[in-house]
Amino acid sequence: PEIWKNKLQGKNKTGYSLKADIWSSGCIFYYLLTGITPFFGEEIETICSNILENGKYFIPFVNKDSSKSDITIEFIDLLTKMFKINEQERIDWIDIINHPFVTTPIN
Predict the structure, then answer these.
(1) Which residue in 98, 82, 81 sits closest to 20, CA to CA?
(2) Which of 47, 81, 98, 106 is placed for a possible disulfide with 91 were both Cys, Cβ 3.0 to 4.6 Å?
(3) What's the pTM?
(4) How many angstroms separate the CA atoms of 46 and 100, rounded?
(5) CA separation for the pair 83, 12 (Å, rounded)
(6) CA–CA separation, 77 vs 51, rounded Å?
(7) What is the Cα–Cα distance from 35 to 10, expressed in whole angstroms?
């Protein structure tokens, strides 16, 4: 979000931290586990504005075939930490690697 925030505010700032990659990785994790994108909109500008305004996303607890989703509390917690709008509040790579979603064996 920090990249789009700068663009929407008319700033030419091109630098950003690794925390931007954590946000992107959260989007990829979300898509891999749910099959849908975390943020909606018809155009990229609309999606980015929605993210910057409220940062809300939907976690499906039911799959497309109406069966119960396998989404865990650990996954929700990790996404919540990866999708912090303020990059200073966003989880870092060390904490991701040590997060229970990553370290808990699959049954």
Answers:
(1) 82
(2) 81
(3) 0.75
(4) 33
(5) 23
(6) 18
(7) 33
